[in-house]
Amino acid sequence: MTREDEIFEKLKKGDPDAAGELARLYYDDILRYCLFHVPDRSLAQDAVQETFLKVFRHFGSYRHRGRFRAFLYRVAANVCVDICRRRTWEPVPEQVPFEEKGLQEGEDREDFRRLVELVPEELREIIILRFSQELKLGEIAKVTGLPMRTVQSRLRKALRILKTELEGRET
């Protein structure tokens, strides 16, 4: 039984602390995901809070089948889209400051952000979910609503584009 399953058992039994445990289990992952979709850290934190509020507000109709993580990312994606629709963004500066642990982690995140910008928009979400969030292809298919084969082909296409871009820069 996974940690997630244990928490869902507590929720079924009416444990008042279980919802907080579930939020703590995924908070950092969802925040990292939202940071790629909104340019401001405080808005990303707002998106995470709104994600968990929506999930818990409609929790009574959710039936746990071991796919909560994918469901949570789908809700977070929709929340980020809603936030972006409500705001008019200025262009993201070349150097985005991060308050994450350690300088190297911030630099790695910025390098990853620049790599993601090299691929077309329709492939970015798959790259972010696979390599930043470390979701499996099946989970990505559930989050994006795409067939598994489409996820696989888009991932291969994105990786080919990145390889070509990076090889072109080295020469």
From TrEMBL:
Q: What keywords tag this UniProt record? A: DNA-binding, Sigma factor, Transcription, Transcription regulation
InterPro entries for the chain: RNA_pol_sigma-70-like, RNA_pol_sigma-70_dom, RNA_pol_sigma70_r2, RNA_pol_sigma70_r4_t2, RNA_pol_sigma_r2, RNA_pol_sigma_r3/r4-like, WH-like_DNA-bd_sf
Q: Which CDD domains match?
A: Sigma70_r4
Residue ranges of domain RNA polymerase sigma factor 70 region 4 type in the record:
110-160
The yes or no answer to whether the keyword Zinc-finger is present is no
RNA polymerase sigma-70 region domain location, by residue? 23-89
Q: Does the keyword Transcription regulation apply?
A: yes
Name the family: Belongs to the sigma-70 factor family. ECF subfamily.
What is the protein's name according to its record? Answer: Sigma-70 family RNA polymerase sigma factor
